[in-house]
Predict the structure.
Amino acid sequence: MERFTTHTGVGAPLRRSNVDTDQIIPAVYLKRVTRTGFEDGLFAAWRNDPEFVLNQDAYRNATVLVAGPDFGTGSSREHAVWALQNYGFKVVISPRFGDIFRGNSGKAGLLAAQVDDKVVTALWEYLEANPGAPVTVDLEARTVSAGEGLDRIEDSFTIDDYTRWRLLEGLDDIAITLSHADEIAAYEAARPSFKPATL
Amino acid sequence: MPKTLAEKIWDDHVVRQAEGEPDLLFIDLHLIHEVTSPQAFDGLRLSGRTVRRPDLTLATEDHNIPTTDLDKPIADPVSRTQVETLRRNAEEFGVRLHPMGDIDQGIVHVVGPQLGLTQPGMTIVCGDSHTSTHGAFGSIAFGIGTSEVEHVLATQTLPQAKPKMMAVEVTGELPAGSTAKDLILALIAQETTGGGQGYIVEYRGEAIRKLSMEERMTICNMSIEWGAKAGLIAPDETTFEYIKGRAHAPAGDEWDAAVAYWKGLVTDEGATFDKVVTLDASAVTPFVTWGTNPGQGVPLSERVPDPASFEDPIEREAAENALRYMGLEAGTPMRDIAVDTVFIGSCTNGRISDLRRAAELIKGRKVAENTRVLVVPGSVRVRLQAEEEGLDVIFKEAGAEWRGAGCSMCLGMNPDQLTPGERSASTSNRNFEGRQGKGGRTHLVSPDVAVATGVLGHLASPADLDKAGV
């Protein structure tokens, strides 16, 4: 996984709440057996609408998505994270994320930055008034910022310490866990024999 | 110190605990299906890793499986590739697989309990959010993403931050004519789709104790629909009775040892929850959704709400968007909504007791002229059991379609999909935009409401059938 420290890129205001993972990528697009190529299915139903934010030239190359509360609820499909990454997104900002989506983001290297409702509203207004304007997300300082002077928005975001550390270091979870293989083996040796087995 | 049920199970599975790290949990059972596993197996291959515990892993095919022409290869080449990839991976890594055509094939969350692999006090994961279903047995069961699938395959553990604990106290008794599905839909509407976020919830109380095992699975299945990490119910005699004698149930002395352990799996007197919510079961009536998330629901007796009635601006906008998508007008009585397709099935309501109840209601009645009813058993064994009891004949005589087992129209990855604008009453779990097919409009309902709707052609309850004299 690549290290994530700070990122500055075009912000896209997605004025929607409850963007579930079926809306991020519908099930019919989940049939690939690779981790790439899912950008075709990203927000598939909305991409036909010329008014949709990512269909507007100024936001087409956005890398920071600013969404309403309960982003990524529903299905566990990590394809939702891959679709966002395959399209080019590095960060999603929302007041609240679906648990599984947030976990998947941390594993795959997409930063899910949780902020106050009012920060999202301020970013929406700023990005709509200044199409194509950049947003900066600093993982070390845990801040999101955009604009200058009177328009300046700067606030902190929430992310758990462990995920932040892993993203900053670009660490592979499995390698970390396998370094504790002796502890896993000790646990296994003490498991009750009545626990079921499939083989 | 007194502990909650979930804390007991959690603590019994901690492999490693260290300051500043999430707990490393041992996973007792890892269920796998074709959609969320190919990239995980690929990851293992790329890093030269193996499956640590194939004996705690089980795979089946469900999401892409067609429910007609079962004797032919899967027509959609992309679906076929995904299924074939699972077969190759299972073979290569030594994982037991129940493929199409096998008697134990079916929806992964129907298959686990059916085989007796789902037992109290376990940690169960699967790359599918409805893994919460297994919590009905008093286990911590939750959905994971593909990176986590790879992690469990390689290590049989998962690093997890301990969630907060919530109790859902369900008081009173469900009235006749109301079902477990109505209860959970009413709870989600009360708590909203984000209400359970960050919590493991324990469903408790008189109404829960009286539910059958399969009704409890319906409740726990939809825990994720209000954002909970997992949902569970303390095991009791109902649970033990359900497990006993199944293929992977413990036997002899092992059974006694298991039951002794299971009996301790209750929330201790004096244990504290971070949050408690209550629901009066005796006030639950048939419940249906009007919008595009499972929290947007009302009793069937009510009307489509007016978005202006929502104080929160975000909820108001969500309601406006939902009504536009659903093609509904505020103030329309829910019962006036005409339905094109009825879907009975899924991991929420595709078990034998659901089909028995539906068959009993539809017996001697006819599906409405402009409506189609699809009945999709949750597994091959459910289908065979239903056929042995003659339920398939009852459905077919009523004009419903009797299909093969799988996820089917719950998410439309196979050919069972709604067309744009088509409206369904569905016993599944999600009414998201496009969930059952692009442009499709979904109302979530119980099997009872599904049958009555299929017969009358508009959203209805069994009581309406009697009133209509059909």
